[in-house]
Amino acid sequence: xxxxxxxxxxxxxxxxxxxx
Length: 20
What we know:
By secondary structure, the chain is mainly α. Helices cover about 35% and strands about 0% of the residues. It has one helix and no strands. It has one helix at about 10-15. The chain is elongated and about 15 Å long. It starts with 9 loop residues before the first helix and ends with a helix.
């Protein structure tokens, strides 16, 4: 986790784990 934390998609990041 923390892949898309810079994108602001915290919830999506947790669900897809940086898939977004």
